[in-house]
Design goal:
With about 475 residues, the protein is α+β, with helices and mostly antiparallel strands. It has 14 helices and 24 strands.
């Protein structure tokens, strides 16, 4: 078998995109210089062995996801690229502050629209985006949520543009997923680079479960509150994450059938009888949370849980109705929210976004659709969107018909050459597009952002779609403390 060293000189970086490891002259960026020395001492056989070890590790740990639109309907091992994505501390600190600022504003927005609605009265946010939004829950009107926190756990998706700066792609404020992939990526990196990793002064992510537990505990004014993680069950695509997080936090993993209501308090069934529940970290959608309030056919939630919540007898994380703030139509107005509520300039910028119910925007997108990515405002996971530069004429024509039926349900953004990162593909370093999803936790003591987050990679050549459901994978994300 070949003992050939990894070639850095033949790396074909994309000239129209920012490469995380190399500049346009082919020089290695300062944050990767130490790692370059590691690569120079590794041959192809070593890398293959490392890849095999990583696959076996993920297989053993059961690190999986499910693709529902695949005819086979199979559970897959989450793809992992063994080369880390490295970010300077200075860049990270700006990202961290930008995320905190954004979440503060979004949380104030949620409190406002469910109470006084000043932002609507002042015409800063369009009223029709509330009245026509199915994510806006009238059951939450005038409800005082514990500690005034709606967005306890957030995943903010970022991309790096050709100017080298990070931009917000979207906000995830309902039941953001992927944090356990971040944890497993870090664990495998420590094993793949046992002598190199400890010397790099990389900020830790492995304390995320304990930080999450502490922040959720802070939402209740009692010592040692009972916290449970509510899962839809074994067949949910993120069940691995649900079970892993519950185990790492030392809390019970429950399904709706494990919880009961008594005198408007929530109790968990266990061997000793019933135990009162104080905090529910729910990983089911609003629609299925309470069959008495929402979907009457739901067997995933708990009948009457909203009554308990309204009386302040239980904390639900994230708060029901938070989805109205991470709707793709609401995303357009987040910079205005930051200015309106905080009187600050946004630290992190949005990507230019077009509302298709606006006639001028509609006409522009219609005439330039091959340069656009068009998304449903309530879409997620990379489903239901059109990539204009790769779609056929037939697909574009069909998608335009969907838009014409209800333009307000769609937004469009220019296709951006998001940054690339070297991946090991067929024994060679090859550039692939990458985004970043940092995770933030909001408790009574404030907001804490886990350093790094999940770097998702579009493993298909030329693809801009990083979602695992669309063939994407991930990398470990290193924030190196001594790199300013």
């Amino acid at each position: 078998m070949s003992k050939t060293k990894v070639s850095l000189e033949n790396y074909e970086y994309m000239s129209n995109a920012w490469d995380e490891m190399f500049d346009l002259q082919g020089n290695i960026r300062s944050e990767y210089k130490s790692f370059k020395k590691v690569l120079k001492n590794i041959n192809i056989n070593n890398l293959r062995e490392m890849e095999d070890f990583a696959k076996q590790f993920f297989m053993t740990q059961g690190v999986t996801f499910t693709v529902y639109n695949n005819n086979e309907g199979i559970e897959r091992i989450f793809p992992f690229d063994i080369l880390p994505r490295i970010i300077k501390l200075k860049e990270w600190l700006e990202i961290e502050e930008g995320i905190k600022q954004r979440i503060k504003a979004l949380n104030l927005f949620l409190k406002d629209i469910y109470h006084e609605q000043f932002i609507l009265k002042d015409n800063v946010f369009p009223s029709n985006l509330i009245s026509n939004n199915p994510q806006y829950l009238f059951e939450m009107r005038k409800l005082n949520v514990p500690k005034n926190i709606y967005t306890h756990i957030s995943g903010i998706d970022l991309i790096r543009n050709t100017d080298g700066k990070f931009y917000v792609l979207e906000d995830n404020l309902r039941t953001p997923s992927g944090v356990c992939y971040m944890l497993e990526n870090r664990e495998i990196s420590r094993r793949l680079y046992p002598s190199f990793f400890p010397k790099q002064n990389i900020l830790s992510v492995l304390n995320y479960p304990s930080i999450l537990y502490d922040h959720l505990s802070s939402l209740v004014d009692k010592k040692n509150p009972t916290i449970v993680l509510l899962t839809p069950g074994l067949y949910n695509s993120a069940y691995y994450e649900h079970s892993t997080l519950a185990r790492l936090m030392g809390i019970e993993l429950v399904e709706g059938r494990d919880l009961v209501l008594n005198n408007n308090f929530v109790y968990m069934k266990n061997a000793g009888g019933l135990k009162k529940v104080d905090v529910i970290y729910r990983r089911i959608d609003d629609e299925y949370l309470d069959p008495l309030y929402f979907n009457s056919s739901s067997q995933l939630g708990v009948a009457g849980i909203m009554s308990s919540y309204r009386k302040g007898n239980v904390v639900i994380v994230n708060a029901p109705g938070s989805g109205v703030a991470d709707d793709k139509a609401s995303y357009i107005y987040v910079p205005k929210m930051i200015t309106y509520y905080l009187n600050e300039k946004p630290i992190l910028k949005n990507i230019d976004t077009f509302e298709l119910e606006n006639p001028d925007h509609y006409n522009y997108v219609h005439n330039n659709i091959e340069k656009m990515v068009v998304k449903k405002t309530d879409g997620s996971g990379g489903y239901g969107m059109l990539m204009g530069n790769s779609a056929s004429e037939k697909e574009i024509k069909s998608y335009k018909k969907l838009i014409n039926k209800n333009p307000k349900n769609f937004i469009a953004q220019p296709i951006i050459n998001i940054s690339t990162t070297p991946c090991l593909i067929d024994d060679e370093l090859t550039p692939r597009c990458v985004d970043l999803r940092p995770f933030a936790i909001y408790g009574s003591e404030g907001i804490e952002v886990c350093p790094g987050g999940l770097s998702r990679v579009a493993l298909k050549k030329g693809s801009l779609v990083v979602n695992s459901s669309q063939g994407g994978g991930s990398k470990d994300t290193w924030i190196i403390k001594n790199l300013k």
